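Hello forum,

I keep getting stuck at the same step: I have a sequence, I want structure tokens, and every attempt I make locally crashes halfway through. Rather than fight my setup again tonight, could one of you with a working pipeline run this one for me? It's a single chain of 338 residues.
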Amino acid sequence: MKTMRTRVGLVVALIAAAVASNAAMAQAFPDKPVKLVLPFPVGGGADIVSRVVAEKLQSWWGQPVIVDNKPGASGFIAAEAVKRASPDGYTLFVADAAIMALSPHLYKRLPYDPVKDFDAIAPMYSTHFFVTVPVNSPLKNVSDLIATAKAKKGSMTYASSGVGSHMHLGGAMLDTMTNTPMTHVPYKELSLAFQDVSRGDVDWAFGSGATTPPMYQAKKIKYLAIAAPQRNPSYPEIPTMGEAGGPSDFELRVWVGLFAPHGTPQPVIQKINADMARALREPDVVQRLTSLGIQLWPGTTDELKKAIAGDSQTFKVVVEKSRFPSTDRRFCVPGVPI
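Reply #2:
Ran it on my machine without issues. Output:
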């Protein structure tokens, strides 16, 4: 009897020690600078949101929160950098649905596994895409765009931020859903893509509500439609794809979330999640970012995991049906375009 009581007491003591250790770990974090690694260039939606949030976290944590942009190679450079980092919460990955849910269906081999190499921490935001054209374009709606593209028989061009990006996916989806072949023009720099769209060097592009508002407000580009089920409250004058003469069920949105190298302690993940959600609910953050058409998403780790799983299934079907060039010869070497 005494032996059993001793064992029970030992188990209780171990559990109490573990709980205390976890609490102490969360309370101590962070005690040095934290780095947010982004696979996106400066000035994009994820970069803007990350820097706004980093300011809040830095003020609360009393430690520098550094935004480290590592664009290129379809996000592989940044993903590998975080994958190899110590799983201690001090190197984090700001990634979108394309990197975590779409790329596995576009590449035969990836230098990372979205599920096995990373632990989900927190969702950050989502945003729908607009159909953008030069401000002086004769196109008045999506119906005009489709009719012109059909007349050009494949020579109409659309820009993207790279092969396998949401902008590329959207163009391929529109191509397939309307039986309208168009030419994809990928760019390494998102800003250069929209500069060329604004000058008419490229006919059009899908642009997110987090990236294109400055050019829209400067009257360098115009929106033909938003690829969403409903109009955006910040842009009530912009019709949906269906209202503008495009496919009525067409939707193109992207979410961005925060991840850590696999094996990061749960207490640290929970603390970062709580502080991220708190930052995204701050009135000044809400006012600053929602004015750009960004839908902030202060959510749980499980919500982010479900988003990855759900989008992965959706993208699998979309990629199989869409006209991604040479999709049947998917990448064997990262960075080789389809």
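The beta strands are 34-38, 65-69, 91-96, 118-134, 157-160, 183-186, 204-208, 221-226, 253-261, 295-296. If your local run keeps crashing, start a new thread with the error log.
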